[in-house]
Amino acid sequence: MSYANERRIAELAIQRACILAERVYNSQVKGTITKDDKSPVTIADFGAQALIISSITHAFPEDPIVGEEDSNDLRADKSKRDLVWGLVKDTLDATKDLTGELGDIKDDEEMLAVIDKGTHQGGSVGRIWALDPIDGTAGFLRGGQYAVCLGLMVDGKVQVGALGCPNLPVDPEEPEGKKGILLSAVRGEGATMRPLSTPSAQGDPISMSSTTDFSKARFCEGVETAHSSHREQASIAKSLGITAPSIRMDSQAKYASISRGVGEIYLRLPVSMSYEEKIWDHAAGSLIVEEAGGVVTDIYGNELGFGQGRTLKTNKGVVAALRALHPTVLKAVQKELKVFKL
Ligand SMILES: Nc1ncnc2c1ncn2[C@@H]1O[C@H](COP(=O)(O)O)[C@@H](O)[C@H]1OP(=O)(O)O
Ligand SMILES: [Mg+2]
Ligand SMILES: [Mg+2]
Ligand SMILES: [Mg+2]
């Protein structure tokens, strides 16, 4: 089965959404709302979800979508809705060359309906897209890393993934140089990367760093201490003999980083055993890491189960590493957390 068309549409949809996200990132007006779970959502999250769902629906009308956001807050606040619609409309106008392949949204009512097409409950049967329109909203707000993330699952397994990372440098050797990369992967076909600014270019193959010496290895972790346990991650790094300081960044930019050799390990150790990771926070990034030569499991060593609904119900935490390092890293994680495979 070829997924060339799905990969292309996913890349272009992310490209268009990143243009919207960057407009908001560079503007004073973020329109931030605090959701019921206390996490922030901005006009960029709503706008990007509208643009990406509309793109998928245009290209693959039958496919269901599990998206992070819904339109309730916008329906309750006309000024916020107008702000998001203005943003979506401006982005559509500025990217007319993509309308043929990605379609259009005619008015604000249609935009709200499109956002709500992301309410699918997920599952293990057939094709289902998983969308995080802005991952790392906290990073987005503080001027750090964020990612626009889209994955296609087929019968509960991720087959296509694409990540837009507008704030990662194109050349990791030049951290202050040109920014914005787009990574994608199809299962069995490898992972590629290209600058976000070159829509029609073919991506270059990427692979993880081949460093197997822990004294030279680097590990990535999130910025938010409420999302993963820095203390335990530091203790594991020490037990492995890692001496370099952790590379901290928000969002699936961590998966993107290790996929292209910036860091060898990504640890996301649970802070609370009741939190269920969301499928949209891992679908694209985990496939890209696997296709770049890595292994991604939870702290039990189980593969991430994407076919069980909107969350990774049976998993806890994430351990991602170069294939050759993963067994040793997992052993260190399990020793630190005193967990045994269930
Ligand atoms: N308690 C938690 N544990 C792990 N991840 C969380 C927790 N609460 C929120 N998140 C998710 O972490 C992601 C950001 O990860 P990172 O810290 O690596 O940048 C967000 O998508 C956020 O989801 P959400 O925005 O749906 O609340
Ligand atoms: Mg997220
Ligand atoms: Mg999000
Ligand atoms: Mg969120």
Automatic annotation (TrEMBL):
SUPFAM superfamilies: Carbohydrate phosphatase
Transmembrane segments: none
InterPro entries per UniProt: DPNP (IPR006239), Inositol_monoP_metal-BS (IPR020583), Inositol_monoP_superfamily (IPR051090), Inositol_monophosphatase-like (IPR000760), Inositol_monophosphatase_CS (IPR020550)
Enzyme Commission code(s) on record: 3.1.3.7
Residues noted as binding Mg(2+) in the record, renumbered to the chain: 68, 132, 134-135, 281
PROSITE patterns noted in UniProt: IMP_1, IMP_2
EC class name: hydrolase
GO biological process, one term: inositol phosphate metabolic process
GO molecular function: 3'(2'),5'-bisphosphate nucleotidase activity; metal ion binding
Catalysed conversion reaction: 3'-phosphoadenylyl sulfate + H2O = adenosine 5'-phosphosulfate + phosphate; adenosine 3',5'-bisphosphate + H2O = AMP + phosphate; adenosine 2',5'-bisphosphate + H2O = AMP + phosphate
Keywords: Hydrolase, Magnesium, Metal-binding
Entries under PANTHER family matching the protein: 3'(2'),5'-BISPHOSPHATE NUCLEOTIDASE (PTHR43200:SF6), PHOSPHATASE (PTHR43200)
Function field: Converts adenosine 3'-phosphate 5'-phosphosulfate (PAPS) to adenosine 5'-phosphosulfate (APS) and 3'(2')-phosphoadenosine 5'-phosphate (PAP) to AMP.
Family, as annotated: Belongs to the inositol monophosphatase superfamily.
Name of this chain's protein: 3'(2'),5'-bisphosphate nucleotidase
Source species: Tuber borchii
